[in-house]
Structure formats: structure tokens, C-alpha cells
glutamate synthase (NADH)
Amino acid sequence: MQSMTIDMTYPVSEGGDGILATIDRVCKEACEAAKSGYQFLILSDRSVSPERLVYTLSSNPKNNHYFWYIVLSWIGDIRVMPYGGGKRCVEADARSRVPVSALLCLGATHHFLIEARQRMKVALLLETGEARILRGAGIGVKPVSGDDLRERSRVVVLIERDFNRHALPRVGVLAFLEGGGGVLLLRLLARERVPVPGPMNQGLVGAEVHHMCVLIGYGCDAICPYLVLETMFQLRKEGVIDRYLKDFDVFGNYAAAMERGIAKVMAKMGISTMLSYKGAQIFEAVGLGPEIIDKCFKNSASRLGGITFRHLAEETFDRHRIAFDSKECDSLILRNPGFYHWRNGGEQHVNDPLSIARLQEASKSNSPETYRQYVEDAIKSIRACTLRGQLEFIPSEKPIDLSEVEPASEIVKRFATGAMSFGSISYEAHTSLAIAMNRVGGKSNTGEGGRQNNHIAPLKNEKNKELMKFCESPDRYLYHDPEYNLRSAIKQVASGRFGVTATYLANSDEIQIKMAQGAKPGEGGELPGYKAKAEHITISGHDGGTGASSWTGIKGAGLPWELGIAETHQVLTLNDLRSRIVLQVDGQIRTGFDVLIGGMLGADEFGFSTAPLIVLGCTMMRKCHLNTCPVGIATQDPILRRKFQGKPEHVINYLFLLAEEVRGYMACLGVRKFQDLIGRTDWLRVRKDVSGKSSFLDFSAVLQNASSLSPDVNIVAASVPQDFQLDSRLDSVLIEKAKDVLEKKAKKVDIEMEVENSQRTFAATLSYQIALKSLFGRKFGEIGLPDHSINIKLKGSSGQSFCAFLARGIHVTLEGDANDYVGKGLSGGEVVIFPPKDMGEDFKSEENVIAGNVCLYGATSGKAFFRGVVAERFCVRNSGAFAVVEGVGDHGCEYMTGGRVVILGPTGRNFAAGMSGGIAYVYDPHGTFKKKCNTVMVELLPLLFDEDIQLVYRLLIEFYEKTDSQVAKRILDQWPHPTKKFIKVFPFEYQRAMRQVQGRALVYQGSRSLSRQGSSISQTDFLFPPGSPTVKSGHEVHDTAPIKDIEDVLRDGHIERQCEFDRGFVKYRREIGVYRPAETRMKDWEEIYNFEHVRRGLRVQAARCMDCGVPFCQSAHGCPLGNIIPRWNDFVFHGEWKEALHQLLQTNNFPEFTGRVCPAPCEGACVLGINEPAVTIKNIECAIIDHAFEQGWIIPQPPKIRTGKKVAVIGSGPAGLAAAHQLNKVGHLVTVFERNDNIGGLLEYGIPTMKLSRKVVQRRVDLMAEEGIIFRTNANIGKDIPTKEIYDGYDAMVLCLGATWPRDLPLPGRNLNGIYFAMDFLETWQKTQMGTNIDFEKYSAKGKKVMVIGGGDTGCDCIATSLRMGAEEIKTLEILPKPPPHRGSDNPWPQWPKVFKVDYGHDEVKVKFGRDPRLYNTMTKEFLDDGNGNVRGVRTVKVEWRKDDRGRWEMKEVEGSEAVHETDMVLLAMGFLGPEKDIIDQLSLQLDPRSNINTLDGQYSTSIPRVFAAGDCRRGQSLVVWAIMEGRQAAREIDLFLMGDSSLPGPGGVIQILHPQG
Ligand SMILES: Cc1cc2nc3c(=O)[nH]c(=O)nc-3n(C[C@H](O)[C@H](O)[C@H](O)COP(=O)(O)OP(=O)(O)OC[C@H]3O[C@@H](n4cnc5c(N)ncnc54)[C@H](O)[C@@H]3O)c2cc1C
Ligand code: SF4
Ligand code: SF4
């Protein structure tokens, strides 16, 4: 066998054009190789390589350049030029190579070879590094970040791909292309070529299944994802992967995960063999232009057209740059760009924190104004993420008045909630939706099952005593109180296994059969396609699905609903079928805009799922599958369900606000009735301002107006009924014969009939009638009829679905045989089938098939006896029926969840796959069963327990009596001897559930497990695996001691750890004692924190974090830096401090500052804070960085190259320091000018040492100096040094001047002695502390009565400082009212909680003087003179705050409330008005209306070229964390300005190459 490797890379120097030439070359080389007799063609991207570094050595002989010349030249990837002046630059030459996407090359080659008739001669193998690593099916490693790898291996590879913005294909070609874009980027800093992978901070747990699928789907024969494998090898080598795993395990697990994932995708698409899947091209592209499709994906649909090779190449180059950028700085950290979970600064999601918060606020308050703000924000995300967002309405020339538009109450009738079952959401959430939809006249959807589990007691709410009666049984359908109607109009059948009973189905207005669902096609919906004569079709978009959706189903699966609804409407109209069908659309419909677009594309109705759940309190935590939902929605846990705060009224508010939005649009469009806009695509057009890649989309197919093609076709939905010809069915006769029983005129009826195989679903309509009676007459309920009420004897061969959903009380005996689906959904009835009695003596029923495939699928109760063998998939998803059969085909009892099955003969293979409940008893006289059973989820045991033996015996007797089975007779004749030949198939999951029910106190009975051959494992052993309870003598089983704290849990291994981590917030309280006791701390000037205590509890505190899908702690309301809080928490919990540090440093330059002084808006926005104390964040942040310093991990990291650009930073506060730090990282030479004698700004001379030690500030300043930043103190720019001098001497300057201009209180007596600005007081004292020779005496508070005016944080610092100085009395005056103890309705989560807080200074005053120093509602009127020009007191008056008619706050003095407060010293702490003006005036900078330096929104460049501004001088008085954020982003903008692009991280630490245009 001959093989040839073909290179898929090309020189960087060829630029964007190289992509096409390379694809052509690869195709040609492949074709020639095939013709020359090669059989294996390996397309490889291994030759990817960086741009070369070119060193020019200094001509200074001291540098020993000959030595370096030799060393550097020896390192092959670096070119060295002697005597060049000591510079370093990057050169793109022929040895720098970028890859073409493996998929592009593969697809093109595959088609090229087909056309050249060479494809059959060769196998196409791929050697590619494009495999993306992310959380998946588990190779069992812990997440890592890349710095460790860099340090140890000297090699870092990374890259993450931007892969979904326009990637919306059915199985996602574009996702792959954009994502991969041919980018496998290795960074080889030395000769050692050891690649390490990309976004591992998502958890290295599996490569993306989708990539493999799409490669196979476009013809690949084998894939070597070498980057993944080498990564795993490397991680193992470095001990990052769980040390208990061996390389072999890791590779094996990875391969198994891939295999499983690929098989699942194939199954979803209905393809069972790899051969059929390979090259099948079952993909649709969204956003790929014809040139790409024609060359690489011939004949694949790409309805919207889209981008070209050039775009793909550009993106490839950007990624190449990030990976190989000579300015490595932050790009060496592996990052999570937020594809799956929202992340600050990352990929945009339709549900971002801001819109979630606004939606909740709007629906709770029913406020049109808040709703308008919500829509404003939501539309931005819709535009960024969806197809519909690219469209707009064409304004009508004849708008109408709003009053002429049909009322909102009519529009809401078109609304439905999505299919969300009781399993997926709590009883409270489920019923709230049902009640809301019934009240508005819309429809709620049960989701499959929709049953209350009996063992879950419903919680109390308003109406609950009465409701409880109903919700505990399916009779809740009968509860029709109009205000609290729990009935869901739509009953869904998804997999047909969760309680799909006759009553369930009968009690519906619509039965919805799920065939595929956008976000996870087929998952839970792998039902055969039905020819159903549907009356209603729901088009479900690709972006639906719950947080429980598997990661492989979230991306690259499904299509946008815009395509689906438009095509469905067009096709139905063209075939004149539209009038018979109601079309519903769903998938992230959240605004009236979505509804209008859906309607114009052809939808009649609209499904809402995520939005109403958000309204009920969902925060998109995306942990639905873990049963840990903190707001009581996606959980069955009674403790968590108590946290549910949603109300049906909120949902109703939302639907009506949305309907009003729809009405507004309708008025503008001049439409009176919604029906009149359905299908009016001619009122839509592509937005004029669409830019970027979206502008390449062609919407003409979507916007084709179907009615203009078929003008006279009726498109009014459901105006023509479907004809189901029900009267002609055999069931009509049956119902007639059973009429007396149905009408309760008779107790029993015996019916005899003949049946033919053309008659399908025999007795299903009769069962429906019984269920219906239960519905309206409450006569029978789910219980059905008494046993043997309707007895039917049949002869013949039945058609498909014989006795489907057979209701209790109906007994059917068939002498003959049956087709597929016998007893599907059996609902309490009994089916007996035996062969004709006249078959003769020799006929052996056990050797003949009596019924077809899939019998008893999804049966819920009842009995079935088959004398004979049934075909494949017997009892699949049975949840409660009892059955006896003489033999079954393959896949018996698959996914069974309940019931009992006795099998008296052979089984096919794969028995019990996915079986989680119920028990099967298999008679196995020849010992062959074990090999055919899939034992992943089941244990095979002998028949030992009495209850099992008795059950089997009773069923055998009954079976024999009803069918005359000779097999049963033979067994019974020898009873009990044959019990030894029975195997009990007992699912582990079922065992676990039973253990729970039995309270873990079972009687020990020794027995032997059959599936663990050779060992003598007792039945108790399998019930109680090692480590849980202990088995004591006396046969009693007890639990071990309960877990007291997390340290105990940690000893119990990973699984328990994870479990505790997931539920940490339920188990652990928030630590509140973070300060040293006030009594002791007020006596010194040391930091107030109790570090030791805080650290001791940190892991417990970290365990409270829920790793939210939408981490509000990082949102706009939360951490301004977008700190990746859940990641550190996870690492801290697992004791991975270094990894935690890497996460922290991605976003925050100085966590040692914020960890001490930040007021932690993150905690105010934490999801946990909705109904309990938020996660501790700030203390964990502080502990991570302090630990890192202690460990010596924080060392100076000077940049390896210098750009030669000089930047001046004016001001050394946190903004200036952050800007300098970032700019220095990318190699600019930074000088920081500070007018004070020390560096640090307010960190140094504002915030007191008790909050932030000067040593901590100095430590950082020293590090930065060692990294090459130049600090110049006592340099007052604009005074000591002319601003122009700096401006002219530097390539750019950034002003970080702070907002140091204090707000004054110009009242009578203001110029008396003893009245100071807070900053003068604090700064002077801090300088004195630092040893500066300064006259401090007048500022001393010792022995004085201190009055602080202003109740904010600066005021608190003044209090704490004067207290430590020895003040005699301290008071604070605050003009505003005292904040409430809890959030007000105008201050909802996740806003910063404006509640009463006791800060450290207040607490200390209380301890010392016995009362809180703050006086609220107090206005200062005058400073009083002691007669010597010193202040002696302040005169005040009380004020009241009221809202005026327009809702604005109004202040009023309270008559007679004047008072005089004695004081010797007044400190004015009322905030700041902006920066000082010297520099501003000298540069003639523009100011904003608040007198801060003016820049464009979200930008940092000022009105003067080359001058930038950041921090308090730009945004006004703010916080340290904001200053750092501004400094970082200003640095990025400056880098872009100086270099033409920037790879510095953007908001949230996400790296994306920034180009000048944006
Ligand atoms: C008393 C007090 C306590 C605070 N406590 C907290 C807290 O606990 N937590 C928190 O998050 N925030 C706190 N803040 C706010 C926080 O300190 C500021 O928001 C933050 O320091 C602003 O950073 P900055 O870099 O923009 O400006 P600053 O820190 O104000 O730094 C500006 C620097 O520029 C220098 N400068 C100005 N003009 C010139 C010039 N012409 N030439 C040379 N140098 C110049 C100044 O001397 C100063 O050092 C507090 C503020 C005060 C006043
Ligand atoms: S910097 Fe402040 S807001 Fe951000 S995580 Fe730390 S404490 Fe929270
Ligand atoms: S800190 Fe709070 S908001 Fe952030 S991820 Fe953890 S629980 Fe969620």
C-alpha cells in the first residue's frame, strides 16, 4: 500500500489569495497521486509555522554577539542579522505557513477526485490540528489554563475559533469553517515541537464531535486529530490530567467519546452505518457563498449565500497572528471566548445578562417603559445573532391609529408556551405557565409526560390545598377553575416514554408529535416520521432547547426558524394546503419584533419557552440537568423549589406587553388584524445598515411572497378542515358495541370480531372514549373501567399499532398474529395474543414470530401476553406494563424505565441498553443470555428473593392460563427447579432509587452477582457500592457518619466532590466574618481583614458558586473587568491555586488591590443573591493573588521585544498603572508621570492603609519597574513640566489624572478654620504615615469632635481614620434617607443593591461609642463660628423625600427640626467634580457636560490626536475596578493606534485581533 502526504498549508507571504491556490494545488496533487497508484492520501496541516523572528544584534562588542549569533542561528526558527542595531522584528517569509481549513481541502479534494473518476482508488485521510477541545463526553481530565504549559514546555499553542456567529447550518458546515478556518496554530518558541491545544479553560474533556461528523460527511476516510492526541499526551506528561488516568485511558476515553458522539449524530439523522454516512453530505450551510460551495461542498444547500474564500483567509490570518504574534503578552493564556456560556466581552448571545434582567423587571413591574428598554437591548442581540435581525419592516405609507388595531387580548391567543415537561421543570413553574396561558386564552404545552411524580409532594401556594388533590394524579387535567386551570392544551409526544397515556392524549386540544427539535434534533424525539395529516405544524428553530441540552446538540445542529417557516409557508401555499394547517414557530422568540417577522414569513402562532421561564425567574444558569436550579424552576428538589418566586401574572404581563409592542408595529404598518400580515414578506427588506459578513447574505429566497406566486390560494390557517375518515374505522363498530358500558348502562360487554391487517390502531379510539369520559364526566379518570368491562375476542391478523393506548378495563384476546407496535402506549388494558389453535401438534409457538417490532413501546400500565416470539425492540421505553413472551429480537427492554417483563426464550443482542428502571426476568437454560445483554446500566442476578420468585411464578401461571403456552407449562411442571435458570436484569439506577425509598436500611441477604464472574459479590454489595454504607454483622446496613463539612467530602473522591460543588450553595452558608474584631483592629493601622479566617473557609465558599451559564457576576451589573469568577471558584475548590491565578490574571492586572478595596458589584449581581446571600467573590480573589505572591509565582515579566514606541502615562492611580502595565506588555516603552512623591494615586494617598497596605501597592510598583516601566514622581505635568513637552516627546500620551476636584459646601461659615476636604485630611495623614515631613497638626482629629459631611465610602474612611487618631466623638451627616434593609421594587436584582450596610468604620464607631455615627435626612445649613474663626458646630435641619406627580424625588425641609451639632472639625466628603484643569487647558481638550474629559462612547481617544484618557478623569468619580478596566482598554486602543492592530485583550479578557476599522 502506498501513501502520500499532501501539505494543506501555504506561505504567509502569499496572503489571502493563497487559500484558493492551495486548495487547487492539494486537489491536483491528490489526483496525480491517485493516478500514480497511491492508495492513501494524507492531507496534513502539520507544517503550519510561525512568522520568523528576525533578531538584529547590537554592534556593541560588549554584547558578545558572536556567541548569540551562533546560539540564535542554531535555533532554526529564528533568523539573526549581525550588526543591525539590536532590534527585533517579525518577518513573513517562505517558511511561515498558515493552514487552509482541513474541511475545505477535504471537500474540494473529494469532489475533484470524483469528477476525475479517481475517488474510488484512494482513501482520504486527514492529519489535522483543527479538532477543537471542549467539554464533552469525558476523558476525565480537569480544566487547565495554558500558562503552566508555557512555563514548563516552552511551547504554547492555542487558538480558539470564532465559530458561530453566522454558523447556523443543520449540522453546521459554516460553524466548522469559520471556526477552524484552517487554523491550527502552534506556537513553537524553540525547536521543540510539542503542541498544546486551545481553549482548555473550558475543560479538556473531548474534541468536538461535530468536526469529526462534518469531515466524515464530506468524504473523509480517517482522521488523525493529532493536536488533541499530542495535547493529551503533553498534559499527562505534565501531570495536569488526573493522575489516576494513564495515557492509554485518556486516548481510549477520547476515542470512545468521539465514537459515541458520532453514532448519536448518525442516529439522529437516521443513518445506521458509517459507510452510508461517509460522503452523504447531510448538511446545509448558512452563510457560505457559492464559490465555496461549488468548490468544496458541491450540491450542499446554502440558501442564503454568503462569504467568500477571502473572508475565511482573513480570519485565518487573524488567528495565525494571535497564535504567533511576536508580542506574546496575554495571548499566551488559553481563553474561553464564551461560545457556550455567556462571557463578558465574548461571543454575543441572544440571552445576555442585561436583557434577562430587564425582562424580569419589566414583567414583574408591568412597566411599558422598562419593557421598552428591554426591547431596545434585546433587538441589539437579535441583530447580532439572528437572521431576522438582518431584516426590517418597510414603513407603510398609510399607517393607522393604534385604536384601530385588533386588541392585545386577540393577539395573545396566538401565543403558546413551549414543550417543557414536569421532568425538566418544577411543578410550580409548569403550572404557572399553564395557569397563565389558560387565563390569556393561549396554549400551554405539557412537554412529554406532564405528570406529577407521586413521591414529590407539591409545595404550598395560594390555591394549593385544592390543587394538590389534582396535581398528584393525572386527574389534574380535570381541574378547570378558570383562574387556576392547570390543563395544558397541547400534549406532546416526544419519545413516548414518559406517561403518554390514553387520558393524557385524550385530554388535549392538540397532540404534538416531536420529530426533531432545533437545538437537539431528535434528542428525545427520535420518533419515526408520521404521515399524520397534521393540522398544526411547529417549526422549531435551531436555538431552542434547555440548559440540559447536550453540548453536541447546541451548536452546529438545526437551522434558523426563519428559513424553516418561510419555506413551509411557501410550499404549503404552492400546494394549496396552507388553509388546512396552522403554522407555529418557536425558538428564542422574545419580542414583538420576532413575532412580526415570524408572522410575515408565514407563522400563525408563536411558541415561547425561554422568555416565559426568564419571566418566572430563570437566569439561564444552564444547569437544568443537574437539578440545582437556584430559582426553583428546572429542579425537582423540594428545597430549591421553595425558592420559586414566579407568578402566572408575570407571564401574563409579559405576553400583553409584547402584544402591545406587536400592535404598535401593526399600526405603523397600517394593519388592523394580525391575520392580514401573515405571509406578507413584501413588507420586509434587508436592513440598510447591515455590515460585515452579514452583508453577503442573500435573503431573496426567504422573502419570496408565496401568495404572489399562487395568487388565489387560501392561506387562512385551519379554514379548511382535514378529513381523517374516522367513521370508516373498525373502532366505530367497537364503540357502538361497547356503548352500554361506556354509558354506564351495563357493567360488561363481550365482543367477538374478525380483524385484518389493514386495520390499524385497533381499540385506540375506544380507549380514547374511555379517557374522554374521564375528562368530562369524571367517571373513569386515569383508572379507566373496572377489569373485564369490555372483553374482545378476535381472530385474524391485526394491523399496525394493535391495541395502542389500550385503556384499563378492556381485555383483548387475539387468536392469530399481529403487526408492529402492539400495545404501544398501553394504558392499563390487557392484550393476549396466541397462535391459531388449529396449527397442529408440531407447531412450536416458541420458534415462531407472533408479533412485529416495537411492541409495548412506551407502555405505561396494563398487561400483555404473547405466546410466541416478538420481533425487535420489545418493551422499549416501557414504564409500567407487565409482559410475558416466549422470545424477543434485538434491543429488548431498551430504555425501559418501569414494569416487569418475563422472557421465556432467547433474546437478541443489546438487551437492556439504557434500561434504567423496571425488571426483566430472562429464562436462560443454555447460559447464552449474558453475552447478548448490554450490562452498562444493569446488573445480572440470580432469582433469589421470594418476591421475585413469586412474581415470576404468578405471571407464568397467568400466561399459561391465557395462552396455553407449552413453554410456560414445561417450566411450571418443574417449578421451583427452573428458578435457577432465570436471570434477573436489574438496572443500577433502579437499585439506587429503591435504596433511597427504603431509606438505606435493607436486610442483608447473601447472593452472588452473575455479571462479576469469579467474585462472590453479595446482593447487598451491589446495592451499596464500596464507600457508601458499611455492612455490619447482624445483617443491618447503616450509612457512615454524615458529612459535616467539605473537607470530609473531599476525601471521598471526585464524584462526591463534584456533587457537593454543584450543590454547595444549598449546603453551605456564606461566611460573613471577614474582618478582624472591631475592638482590636481600631487600635492599629494594619489591614482590617482577617486573612487567616477567610482562607480557612475559602473552599467552602467557592463551593457555593454555581458556575452559572449566564454568570451575572461578570455582567455589566457585575464585575467591570469581567473577571472569570466561576472558573477561579472551581479551581480554588479543587485546590488548583495556580490555575485560579491564571484565570484571574486574564482580566485583572491588580487583583491584590481589588481583592481588598473593591465594593464587589459582582456580589451584588451574583445569581445566588436573588434569594440568599451571594457567593463570596472578593475575598477569594484576594486570597488567590496573595497566595501567588507568597508562593513566588508573581515575578517580573519584561516584554521580550520592544516596539520602539514611547508612551507617556500621566497619573499613577489604578487607571494609569493598568494602562502602563498593558502597554509595556506589548513592548512599548512606558513612562508614568506622577505629581505626588509616591506612585499609586488614590491607592496610595486616598484609600486608608487599613483597607490597602502601602506595602501591597509598593510591591506592585516595584514589579512594574523591573518589567521596564519608568516611574517619575514629583512631576506635575502642566505645572513642573509643560504638557507640550510631553506631547511632543512621546508617540502617545494617556491622561489618568483622576477626579480630584472636590465638591464644596459653600454655606455661611465655610471659611472657618477646622473645615477641610476629606481628601486633604486623608492624604496629609497618609503622607505623614509614609514619613513625609509635613505639617499635620491641624488635620489631627485627636480629642476632637469630628463631623463628616457625606455618607459614602470616603466618609467612612474619614470616620475610621479619625477614630484611630483618637477623636472624641464622630458623626456623619447624610442628606439622603436611610436605605431600606432589603432591595426596593425600584432596585431589583442584579442592580447594585441600595440597602443599608454597615461598613468597617461604622461598626468600629458603634463598638467604641455605642451608636452608628450616621444621621440621615439631615441637611447642613450653616457652619458656626466659635468667635475665633474656628468652627464650633454645624446647624442642620431635617428633610423629607417625596415623589412628585411625575415620579421625581423632591426634598422638603421639616419645620421645627433645626438642630446644632457641636464640632471642632468638619470633613467634607461629598465627592468630586472632575479632573483638575491645568493639562486640559493647555491641550484645549474637550470636556463632557459633567466636566470630565470627553471621548467618544466606549472609546478613550480624546479630541486631540495622540491623547487618550482613562479612569476617573474620563468617567467621573468611580471605583478602582473601573479605573483598571479603563486603563486596560485605553492601552488596547493606544496599541491599535501605534501599531495598526492590537492583540491586547478586549473587555472580559477576550483576545480578538483589533483592526483600525473596528
Ligand atoms: C478616600 C477615597 C477612598 C476610596 N475608596 C475606594 C475603595 O475602597 N474602593 C474603590 O474601588 N474605590 C475607592 N475610591 C475610588 C478610587 O480610588 C478611584 O476611583 C480610583 O483611584 C481612580 O483611579 P484613577 O487612576 O482614575 O485616579 P487616581 O487614583 O485619582 O489617580 C490619579 C493620579 O493622577 C495624578 N495626577 C493628577 N494630575 C496630575 C498631573 N497634572 N501630573 C501628574 N500627575 C497628576 C494624581 O496625583 C493621582 O495620583 C476611593 C476614593 C477616595 C477619594
Ligand atoms: S474586581 Fe471587584 S467586581 Fe470584580 S470580581 Fe473583584 S471584587 Fe468583584
Ligand atoms: S459567582 Fe454567583 S453569578 Fe457568578 S457564577 Fe457563581 S453563582 Fe453564578
